[in-house]
Predict the structure.
Amino acid sequence: MSYDPNNIFAKILRGEIPNDTVHEDEDVLAFRDINPQAPVHVLVIPKGEYVSLDDFARDAPAEAVGRFFAKVGQIARDLGVAGEGYRLIANTGRHGGQEVPHFHVHILGGRSIGPMVVKR
Ligand code: DGP
């Protein structure tokens, strides 16, 4: 799947749509989810154009992948959720339920997040 430069997170990165930023640097933007599922619900996205985790893990330099996850950990610590714990989610592709085709991880915390997957 090729990268769609008009996806909503690309627009957020270009400043075309406002967001509630909690962290920004040269590599990543972290902002609060518009539809929070927990007291802390933050999305972390790389600034590079990657459709999904599959794309990012395959195509980004290993150093950039490592740096991204180091930053996710630091952002969770800064949000104050690392002590009690949190859940990291990377919905990937259709079966993963990914809605926005720009790689992102969800940091969910501030309460017990509950069962990992609801059985259907
Ligand atoms: P996913 O299913 O993993 O692709 O989740 C996409 C998330 O993005 C979903 O939890 C809602 C959030 N989201 C969608 N549009 C916007 C937006 O315009 N602003 C913010 N802050 N979050 C958004």
User: Anything to note?
Assistant: The radius of gyration is 14 Å. The pocket of 2'-deoxyguanosine-5'-monophosphate is lined by residues 8, 17, 19, 31-35, 43, 91, 97-100 (CB under 6 Å).
